């Protein structure tokens, strides 16, 4: 079933009871409702979680959603992670450093606080490789809100040479120390080997599963590295299939997806996220 537009959702019976949402455009691919509703049911919390499609021209309606009396929290995805910032009353250091928000929590007196749980979710599966990554090079495909969270996370892990691959590197603003830009035609840097490649773009996401940020001519560049795709649908993206062919180690987007969801759930509802229940719901949905 296609998710409702924001205007339709606000007029629906769904808002007559406590609700949480994921907003984005498009949003039909999202399995956030699947895992959050499984977690809410398991924990006995009387809230329903919905996917709501918020197109760029629906921005003026967002305050009505975020300040609704039954609103309990929102996850935020493409293209809203940066555009929601001026709707917030307060935000965490992670939002400040990344200039991106993926979680909105309502507080007393109608106040809205922004968090970025992408960072915690992204780092979790990399913690086992800290010594391998420290002081070395990473290449990140994409320069949007998810990319900024990944850059911040990699710096926390001690990586000192981070290349962000952008379709329009000349339009990007000032970069942090240790971060530089490249285009899709010149990211193949000679010299020090790259030990981590991360795809933060939607390339390869359902239904366009044949796409990848890496041209087949450069698959050999992935050899000996860790390849991490934050896309979780499908689990084995075209990029990760290329990585497997090159003999690289793969980290799947489902790990980050569950990690960021866990942190967001705990912020929304002040209770533990039932990871086993949510993981089972996710993989059942992905396999169906």
């Amino acid at each position: 079933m296609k998710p409702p537009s924001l205007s339709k959702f606000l007029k629906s019976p769904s808002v007559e009871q406590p609700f949480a949402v994921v907003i984005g455009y498009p949003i039909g691919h999202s399995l956030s409702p699947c895992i959050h509703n499984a977690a809410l049911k398991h924990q006995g919390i009387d809230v329903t979680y919905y996917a709501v499609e918020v197109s760029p021209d629906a921005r003026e309606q967002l305050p009505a959603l975020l300040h609704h009396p039954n609103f309990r929290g929102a996850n935020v995805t493409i293209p809203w992670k940066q555009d929601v910032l001026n709707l917030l009353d307060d935000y965490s250091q992670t939002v400040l450093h990344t200039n991106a928000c993926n979680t909105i929590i309502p507080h007393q007196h109608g106040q809205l606080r922004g968090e970025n749980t992408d960072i915690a979710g992204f780092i979790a599966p990399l913690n086992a490789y800290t010594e391998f990554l420290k002081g070395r090079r990473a290449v990140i495909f994409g320069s949007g809100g998810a990319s900024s969270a990944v850059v911040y996370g990699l710096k926390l892990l001690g990586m000192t040479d981070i290349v962000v691959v952008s379709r329009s590197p000349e339009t990007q603003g000032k970069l942090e120390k240790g971060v530089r830009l490249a285009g899709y035609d010149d990211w193949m840097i000679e010299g020090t080997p790259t030990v981590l490649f991360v795809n933060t773009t939607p390339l390869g996401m359902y239904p366009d599963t044949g796409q990848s940020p890496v041209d087949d001519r450069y698959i050999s560049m992935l050899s000996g590295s860790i390849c991490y795709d934050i896309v979780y649908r499908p689990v084995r993206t075209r990029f990760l299939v290329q990585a497997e062919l090159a003999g690289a180690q793969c980290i799947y987007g489902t790990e980050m997806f569950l990690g960021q969801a866990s942190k967001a759930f705990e912020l929304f509802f002040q209770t533990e996220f039932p990871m086993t229940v949510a993981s089972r719901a996710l993989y059942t949905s992905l396999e169906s």
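The chain has ten helices and twelve strands. Residues 120-251 form a domain with the Rossmann fold fold (CATH 3.40.50.720).
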